[in-house]
Amino acid sequence: MDLLSLRRRPLRVVWIALIAIVAGVGLYQAGQWWWRERRWRWIVVHHTASDFGNLAYFKAMHQRERGWSDIAYHFLINNGTAGTAAGQIEESDLWRKREGNYSTKVHTVNEFGIAIVLVGNFEKHPVPELQMQSLLQLILKLKKQYGISPDHIVGHRELWQTACPGKHLNMAEVRRRLAEMEKR
User: Fold this and answer.
1) How far apart are CA 35 and CA 31, in angstroms?
2) How many domains does the chain have?
3) I want to staple 101 with a disulfide (CB 3.0 to 4.6 A). Which of 26, 31, 114, 115 is the partner?
4) CA nearest 46: which of 177, 144, 171?
5) Minimal CA–CA distance to 85: which of 17, 131, 123?
6) What is the pTM of this model?
7) Which domain holds residue 20?
8) Is the domain of 31 the same as that of 43?
9) Residues 7, 54 within the same domain
10) 80-126, pLDDT tens digit by residue?
């Protein structure tokens, strides 16, 4: 089709084509936004099973040992080691880019779930209260923002046969405390 034949077509056809193109681009961008911001349906809690580290430490470990581009989780809650403050929340590049995670062997949960890890070995000792408060506040914020159902706030072991997030991190208690916080 050359320019001369375009001039002969009614202007209405050209406008309809332009509107269709713009609408198609808009729908594509809306889909991209939905995938980035509205797909989240799970929150999965983990522990590092190590009492030392921060985001940079675990990111380097995951890159070196597993070949991943980032840490396996979206958020890391520190315990006060490796130059961090207890309860300090670090956000990974996975979250900044809203990419899926590598935290479980359940692909759909990795793609539609927000992974939170606490630094510590909660098989051996309880979760320090500053970390627990940060965990509860972060989960509450994400739950409200993304409309995540309470029964989709789980510990790793509730999805897969593993000890994670440790016997001292009781997810039933976490869900109970979240429900109390929401009533206030």
Assistant:
1) 6
2) 2
3) 115
4) 171
5) 131
6) 0.83
7) 3-35
8) no
9) no
10) 999 999 999 999 999 999 998 889 999 999 999 999 999 999 999 99
